[in-house]
Amino acid sequence: MTHPAALASGPRRRRASTRQSRLLFGLFRGAFLSLVSLIVIVPIAYMVLASFKTIPEFFGNPYGLPRAWAWDNYTRAWQDAHISITLPNTIIVTALSVLGSTLLASMIAYGISRKEKPFAMGLYTLFVAGLLVPVNMVVLPLFFLIKWLGLFGTLFALILPYIALGLPLGVLVLTPIAATLPRDLVSAAQVDGATEWQIFWRVVLPLMKPGLISVMILNGVWMWNEFFIPLIVAFKPESQTMPVGIVAFIGAYSTEWGLVFASVVVSTAPVVFAYLLMTRQFQSGLTAGAIKG
After folding, report:
1. What is the pLDDT averaged over residues 121-150?
2. Tens-place pLDDT, residues 14-72
3. What is the CATH number of domain 81-286?
4. Can you give the residue ranges of every domain in the chain?
5. What is the model's pTM?
6. Closest CA to 173 of 218, 222, 114
7. What is the distance between the alpha carbons of residues 202 and 209, in angstroms, rounded to a whole number?
8. Helix axis angle, 257-277 relative to 72-80, nearest 10°?
9. For the chain, first and last CA: distance in Å?
């Protein structure tokens, strides 16, 4: 006959093994997250330190702290890179493009999710396929279109293409979210006499808020940092954005690296702060359409 102590030792060993497995998993997860954090934080720290260095110190001591903090790099960057012009331009272009693209994408996503006909899936696939088209491929037809519209050298030469190029991602993220919206709420609004526009503005959009924030962040980061389209169609200094203005410090024979990194810090800071403020909404938006409600 088996002794009762031997019978009781089995569950204790299993619980000890489970605790040990959880401890090892926690240590592994902590080490992995620490490594990923270092991969992200180290380049940012290097960029900030480099923005306070002169050219000789940048090459002589690239990884150390600055001996004398060159705060005038930011003053010169503001003046020489025309950040006082390119920063407001970037804010205006990004804000209007994100709002326009997100609004249109939400309308398209809601319309597709309401249709039961086969062409709805084909239309959804057609929009999503736009993610496979590289920006470089559409620059030539975009060049002729902007020229035909007479928008060269204006901010609208950037806003309109950005709105169109932001639609595929918006439709991809928002359509599954719109498909999970409770049909009973829409039916109740229709019974109360609400029009389709009223249903969309007062019922659908508030319920899609997490997904809308995610799309705005994803498209906003891309539009804020996009370089190729402004380089081609926004050639006038008064219509350039920050990525194009930063290139002014990069020369064929010498480069003001301190000014370059100072400009990059100014360009990066708004995006980083916006993401930190809306991290929770961004994460919930990405998972909003993952579960069929």
Report:
1. 84
2. 666 677 777 787 788 888 888 888 888 888 888 888 888 877 887 877 777 888 787 88
3. 1.10.3720.10
4. 4-50, 81-286
5. 0.78
6. 218
7. 12
8. 90
9. 54
